[in-house]
# Entry
Amino acid sequence: MLWINYALIIGLLCAVASKYISPNHFWILAFFGLAFPLFIIANIFFTVYWFAQFKLHFIFSFAAILLSAKTLLGFVQLDFTSDAISNKDIKVMSYNSMLFDLYNWTKNTQSRNIILTSLAEENPDILCLQEFYTSEEKGDFNNIDTVTGLLNAKNLHVEYTTTLRGNDHWGIATFTKFPIIKKGKIEFNTSANNMCIYTDLLIKKDTVRVYNMHLQSIRFSKADYKFIDQVKNDTTDTKDEMEKSKNILRRLKRAFVKRAVQADAIAAHIESCRYKVVVCGDFNDTPASYVYHAVRGKLKDAFVESGSGFEQTYAGKFPRFRIDYMFHSKEFKSKNYHHLTESLTDHYPIVSYISF
# Structure
């Protein structure tokens, strides 16, 4: 038991170290970071296990947990206070809209209307949408006109990664009620639907830059998801289990490396920005990742500042962790961070109030 405990302590410390070492240089640590919650739970178990036997061995796991505390706070928060929301605060919302269920993945013909109704009810001052789709021909899917018609946020910055038939567009979009004074984008060397855009807004006679990003997805295939379901239900075929497992690991490794390069480019751009910033997006990585650490930099995390509970923003099959984020400059204060409890996509929308 003690040797198992030592191995799990090393695993936890490797998971913490994964935040500081780019997968582009040493990708193996990224897998430890992905498993951070499991290592924490295992070390909590051993702390209690040894303490219950009045053995000093509990000190080792306890010390490792203390060293991991800062990383743990990216997953879970205990906040019993609540700041009053004023009409001067800015409501910010970030959401991977999954193309407004363009391909009817949910098997629900009303999914798009429900998603749009949810956006209208929230009516944020700044709305960052990832996996955005709009069509200039399909009236029901002219999402630019629909969203601007539903919200007070009428000003738009949209960039497309893919355009087909000249009228159908896939990309990323930021809607806001504030005047837009400049638009820009950070393109990635990838064929996937990934990009970062930045929008300079005039807020209370001050310029604030809003970053909206969608970083590299793992891009599991249907066969990969089927295999994951089989593992969960213990119905895998041992003949091809090893090869399918290798395929999943290869996809994870490729995504880790690509996201690290993207995160470095975004971090450098944020560092050179002379304005206060708000950062939103789908990072496709957990708080124990290099991507989170690189992009956050010296910024505040809205969940850490004003969230509560164990946060998960991904509603899909794997991994059900927090992969959507909202950061902001230290001059701002976040209030009432939360995610909406219902979603018809594979992400939960996240919302926070930003106070100047």
Remarks:
- The chain has two domains: 2-72, 90-219+248-355.
- Residues 2-72 form one domain.
